[in-house]
Design a protein that fits this description.
Layout (H helix, E strand, L loop, with lengths): L2 H8 L5 H14 L4 E5 L2 E5 L3 E7 L4 E6 L18 E6 L7 H11 L2
Antiparallel strand pairs: 1-2, 2-3, 3-4, 4-5
Length: 109
């Protein structure tokens, strides 16, 4: 666990529980995952960066690099970037563990 990621999570009183749950899900899902702190946010990587977390006032943004690897039949991913998309998670109850587990596995390859 990266100390700057710890600080980022601990400094977000409103979203701390959601950030911790997402972080743990990444670690539980992707073997050999490492954390970095880039662009003022936690970034998760295997051989390359595959996901990031960012807090906003009303939600946590969970972003994915190379989103084209993700199966998103319900159109949950937002954004218009060439390589990145994200979803907004307002609370820990909004975390779809099954969906995100699949996305983390696909994105980390």
């Amino acid at each position: 666990m990266h100390p700057q990621v710890n600080d980022y999570i601990n400094s977000s009183e409103k979203h701390k529980e959601t950030l911790e749950a997402l972080r743990q899900l990444v670690h539980d899902t992707v073997s050999g995952v490492t954390e970095e702190f880039k662009w003022s946010r936690p970034v998760f990587r295997s051989d390359k960066d595959f996901a990031y977390l960012k807090t906003a006032k009303a939600y946590v943004t969970l972003g994915f690099f190379q989103f084209d690897k993700l199966n998103d039949p319900n159109g949950l991913l937002e954004g218009t970037g060439k390589d990145m998309r994200h979803i907004k998670i307002k609370s820990v109850q909004d975390i779809d563990r099954e969906l995100l587990t699949g996305w983390f596995r696909a994105a980390a390859v």
